[in-house]
Automatic annotation (TrEMBL), chain B:
Its main location: nucleus. It catalyses: Cleavage of peptide bonds with very broad specificity. Residues 187-211 are annotated as: Disordered. The active site is at T34. It comes from Acanthochromis polyacanthus. It is an enzyme of class 3 (hydrolase). Pfam families: Proteasome (PF00227). This is proteasome endopeptidase complex. It is found in: Nucleus. Keywords: Cytoplasm, Hydrolase, Protease, Proteasome, Threonine protease. It comes from the Eukaryota. One of its GO terms (biological process) is proteolysis involved in protein catabolic process. Residues 201-211 have a biased composition (Low complexity). One of its GO terms (cellular component) is proteasome core complex.
Length: 217, 211
């Protein structure tokens, strides 16, 4: 994830990672793998955390260079906390997504990044927003990103259902990440998942040996 | 005279393909955006493809063996024609239907020998008395490998996850064909978003059963 792989076979620019977010009945699950690689040849970290908290109930993850990710999310965190002080209330998820979108759009020449923002707010409940390359902002019930995501489009299209329970959604997200990590050489490690609901935030980490296994493993 | 000659040269430049008015696609080769899939089950194989491939995507080389083609339409047609001929000759010599492994090896021989010139990804599937239902994958470059389930074509990347999670060894024929499972949904899920009209019929394109 530190250097974006322009020589990857994947269509469009996306980098060594798999990220996803999905809405269930009452909340949202956001998750990613934990591998950072250089040029698809060397794993520089097996346990990197790509799911970043930008506010109490708002998380985001990014497909892109690690340096860009850290810089942009740091700026976003600052903007959001300032905004919530001004508004005297927790920021809306769309506010967080818009902050990221502004940064992506204004700096589209320098940045190569896609963001997934997921969270819960009192106005609209659980939401998932994706900021695509170039700065388009779109709201979706489920979304995937990163180089590993190409392998799970079919799985996500077939298996995602609206209004799942939390357990079903966690299993769906874990399976999707495990399938992507199984096929994509630059995604791997553990599955980092965060469950966001009205009542709070829960971190779930599924280590490599506890990930679901499939027919050829 | 010189002025006339200059005008003539200008005219021929206008119709060269470097001219903006001539669209790019006229100088590009026809390629198939494809998803192909083949699955072994207990007693045979099921093979299928999205129907947006060119007609004749499933080429009966012999009635007991089929192949699915992806990549350059011209290349794969040419290879399939050659293999059909070779298999026909071979089966006369043998005086019995050829083995699926033989057909797969013939594909591999052509794909490997001419690997620099060809762009062809082929799945060969069939049934014979020796090994039952078999699926062989001959990707670009000319490797040959037998696999219980295999996908190919440009749309295949999107359904690797679906295939890994849904396939189990020991499926029955009905399970392979079941609407919500492997073969019916696979090629449909592999259709690339926004890449033109989908399958002509609501069902996924033809699936050939061999047992």
């Amino acid at each position: 994830m530190e250097k974006h792989c322009i020589d990857s076979q994947v269509k469009g620019v996306s980098t060594g990672t798999t990220i996803l977010a999905a809405i269930f009945d009452g909340g949202v699950v956001i998750g990613s793998d934990s591998r950072a690689s250089i040029g698809g040849e060397y794993v520089s970290s097996k346990t990197i955390n790509k799911v970043i908290q930008v506010h109490d109930r708002i998380f985001c993850c990014m497909a892109g260079s690690l340096a860009d990710a850290q810089a942009v999310t740091k700026a976003a965190k600052f903007h959001l906390s300032f905004h919530s002080v001004q508004m005297e209330s927790p920021p809306l998820v769309i506010a967080a997504a818009s902050v990221l979108k502004e940064l992506c759009y204004k700096n589209k020449e320098e940045l190569q990044a896609g963001f997934i923002t997921a969270g819960w707010d009192t106005k609209n409940g659980p939401q998932v927003y994706v900021v695509a390359l170039g700065g388009m902002l779109v709201r979706q019930p489920v979304t995937i990103g990163g180089s590993g995501s190409t392998f799970i489009y079919g799985y996500v299209d077939a298996k995602y259902k609206p209004n799942m329970t939390k357990e079903e959604c966690l299993q769906f997200a874990t399976n999707a990440l495990a399938l992507a990590m199984g096929r994509d050489n630059v995604s791997g490690g553990v599955a980092n998942l965060v469950v966001i609901t009205e009542t709070g935030v829960e971190h779930v980490v599924v280590p490599g040996d506890k990930l679901p296994r499939f027919h050829d493993e | 005279m010189a002025a006339a000659a200059a005008t003539m040269m200008n005219f021929s430049q206008q119709i060269s393909s470097k001219n903006d008015l001539v669209p790019d696609w006229t100088s590009q080769e026809v390629s198939t955006g494809t998803t192909i899939m083949a699955v072994e089950y207990d007693g045979g194989v099921v093979i299928g493809a999205d129907s947006r491939t060119t007609t004749g995507a499933e080429e009966p080389s012999r009635t007991s063996c089929l192949c699915c083609r992806s990549g350059s339409a011209a290349d794969t047609q040419a290879i399939a024609d050659v293999v059909t001929y070779q298999l026909g000759f071979h089966s006369i010599e043998l005086d019995e239907p050829p083995l699926v492994e033989t057909a797969a090896n013939l594909f591999r021989a052509s794909c490997y020998r001419y690997r620099e010139e060809l762009t062809a990804g082929i799945l060969v599937a069939g049934w014979d008395r020796r090994k039952g239902g078999q699926v062989y994958c001959v990707p670009i470059g000319g490797m040959l490998v037998r696999q219980p389930v295999s996908v190919g074509g440009s749309g295949s990347t999107y359904i690797y996850g679906f295939m890994d999670s849904n396939y189990k060894p020991g499926l029955t024929k009905d399970q392979c064909l079941d609407r919500n499972s492997l073969l019916e949904s696979g090629p449909e899920l592999g259709l690339e978003p926004g890449s033109g009209p989908g399958p002509v019929e609501p069902e996924v394109g033809p699936g050939f059963l061999l047992s």
